[in-house]
Amino acid sequence: MKKLLALLLSLTMVVSMAACTKKEDPATNNNNNSSNNNSGATATTAPTAAPKKVTLNVTTTYAGNDGNAQNYQDAVAAWEKASGNKVNDSSSTSDETFKARVLADFETGSEPDVLFFFNGVDSNSFVQAGKVVSIDEIRQSYPDYASNMKDGMLGASPADGKNYSVPVNGYWEGMFVNKEVCKAAGVEIPDANTTWDQFLETCQKIKDAGYAPIAVSLATVPHYWFEFAIYNYTSSTTHSKLPGSASDAQGQAWVNGLNDIKMLYEKGYFPENTLTGTDDETVQLFIDNKAAFLIDGSWKVGGIEGLTSNIENFTVTYIPGKNQRKTTDIIGGLSSGYYITKKAWDDPDKRAAAVEFITYMTSDEMVSKFANVSATALKNGSSVDESQLSNLAKDGLALVKGATGMTGAVQDLIPTECRVPVFDGMPNLVTGKSDITESVQSVLDLIAAQ
Q1: Which domains are assigned to the chain?
Q2: In which band, very low, low, confident or very high, does the pLDDT at 108 lie, cut at 50, 70 and 90?
């Protein structure tokens, strides 16, 4: 009996060992068989469990009047349906409050899993803190990540020169025009040949006709006028350079530009609520035929299309220039992209979902839909059917084609907290409550103290 039991146990062990051998990974077993490994050991591969379905916390600037806000919502819904994952979205309009909120979230450990944000100095603090993952590191696990993009256009961080974000749509900035207001005021729409002095004459006629020449909220969105007013004292080759002090040539360009904004305010060329109104409110004045001009970016094309049933009433043209800057010298580039935070990367399930989400949102098809009339980093370029574009969108394409020079925005070199004396303080600057030269120097001192 004992011999029978021993025999049965022996047979059981043989069968068990044979079963284990059959479950070996075929590729691993073949590699062992073709090698000179004489140890007799065999390798096995444990099955990989499918990633769990997760909820990604995502923050972007696709909100409010952004022309891609609806595209973004539609894309998120489609991705959720296809992947089985969910998105907890906290997107908000891009302004200084939004930027400050994002940076504060990183400082308190409340950052999202995926972030669509600026890739200039605004991102320095969380890049330097190691709270986002570089594209090179992501590619160690996901070699094809962002492989449809030109690496040279991804937007390297000024903090360390590495790429962290994957762009979607680039941008250009121009002056949107309400044709009806111009017609009612008896003025010609500015074009590539319009000078700054001619623009001022046009603004005066529009004001005399009872309209606001320029729709802008200096309380919340002063940066477009900050940019172009300074640009009128620099050039496409010198604009993206920080002054050493308020008294050097570049510093004086800033001072002179801000004085021009003050002059526009004093002449009454801004809306009555420019010091207190929100961007949405002043844009609505433009849409409602109460203001003639609006400086904004290429993303505003879709925003305007969504705010009016009479898109033929609007066009976009160049901001009139003076000095070295030609009217056809514009501001543009690729300044934002999708980041994966370290918090998400360290979570195995969220890591996979974050990579999948960004890959979906930055595919050729999706980028073409979001970019429309703006620049992209796609290797194959974006696909735009011009026959489906509004006249406003076509005017945007013509604007870029006719540009004689392009530069990035100088504000991208200024950390958010350093902009306060000028950006937050714009109402005080134009009303004379704060000194412009001193405020410019304060900005530069804050940058130097970083």
Answers
A1: 55-170+334-382 (3.40.190.10), 171-332+389-448 (3.40.190.10)
A2: very high
